[in-house]
Design goal:
Length: 335
């Protein structure tokens, strides 16, 4: 499933210099089509890729499928789901396209996700991941709304990271017990929600992804030490994500983020300080941005807006707003 749609952006091993995005869902097809017709069109689109595959949807009468793919630098990130899809890569496909990329498949939620390669059969539960090798025959399938995240990486990049692909293929491992992998999944989620990046930024993001993969599954102290910057970047991304999601909550503080990410409050403050900001400044930025949206889009009272955006005191809201924008909330609304 992931393998088919990922390669719609081009060969993952091709090393694109910036970002490109493709999203495709059977729900976007005309309502006049039957589920079986939508399945046929979805399969045709998914099969027309740089990575050759056989795709089958056993239950076409109830079919739905969706895929959101982002190519960034040397990597391709895909989130896909379907009620029932089976993807097979055979010797003829390998001979035809010569693709040697490696995929990390992570089970996000939903029904079972299964795979087979190197004579090993695995079943991934939510929160588990496994690697699959495009140079060898393989099969993956998802049922009952299985939702997965796939990360395609050029083989040479993994080799440079000290990652031994053959020892990882078709062996499930838990992201719960691996901080670097948890951070990688969170980092990829942040990337999917962002806009397109310049070539220089895409190159930087690629390094971070490679660093996190190295820390997660690479071998050797030297390569792991070189990769430490990627973990720091992912931790910062996770911290900013937590602040953005929860800044509006009453009493929200650095302790809440520390508990959610298993990081000490002092370490969080240090990372933000090295970035040139503080926890309180970031929290205030998000609260004020939320207040601006509310002032422009609703007729709520100022006190209601202040409390809904996380300000425990109306006077604090007024002072912070005026300091940031040079005017009162009331005047901002009247503009």
């Amino acid at each position: 499933m992931v393998a088919a749609m990922t390669s719609e952006t081009g060969n993952p091993a091709g090393g694109a210099a910036a970002t490109a995005r493709i999203a495709f869902s059977s729900r976007d097809l005309p309502d006049a089509l039957t589920p079986a017709q939508k399945a046929a069109m979805w399969i045709e689109a998914a099969s027309n890729a740089a990575l050759r595959l056989d795709i089958d949807c056993p239950d076409r009468d109830r079919f739905y499928g969706a895929c959101d793919t982002l190519a960034v630098g040397q990597f391709v990130v895909t989130v896909a789901e379907a009620n029932a899809v089976r993807v097979s890569r055979r010797a003829a496909h390998i001979a035809q396209d010569g693709n040697d990329s490696v995929m990390m498949l992570y089970h996000l939620r939903g029904g079972p996700v299964e795979g087979r390669q190197y004579g090993r059969e695995i079943r991934l539960g939510a929160g588990e991941a496994a690697f699959f090798d495009s140079k060898d025959e393989q099969m993956t399938q998802a049922r009952d709304g299985g939702r997965v995240l796939g990360l395609y990486a050029p083989r040479r990049v993994l080799r440079d990271c000290g990652i031994e692909v053959e020892g990882l293929v078709a062996k499930p491992f838990s992201v719960k017990d691996n901080e670097a992998l948890r951070m990688l999944v969170g980092y990829l989620d942040v990337l999917r929600g962002s806009a397109g990046a310049s070539a220089s930024l895409a190159e930087c993001v690629s390094r971070h992804i490679a660093d996190l993969l190295t820390l997660a599954v690479g071998r050797g102290a030297e390569v792991r030490e070189r990769a430490s910057g990627g973990l720091r970047a992912a931790r910062l991304a996770a911290i900013h994500r937590e602040i953005a999601c929860h800044a509006h909550r009453p009493g929200f503080g650095v302790d809440h983020v520390g508990k959610a990410l298993a990081l000490s409050p002092r370490y969080i403050q240090r990372l933000l300080h090295e970035e040139g900001t503080t926890f309180s400044a970031q929290t205030m930025e998000h609260r004020l941005a939320m207040a601006c949206r509310a002032l422009a889009g609703t007729q709520e009272g100022l006190a209601d807006i202040a409390f809904r955006c996380g300000f425990g005191d109306l006077s604090v809201f007024y002072r912070a707003f005026k300091r940031k924008f040079g005017m009162s909330p009331g005047r901002f609304r009247r503009l």
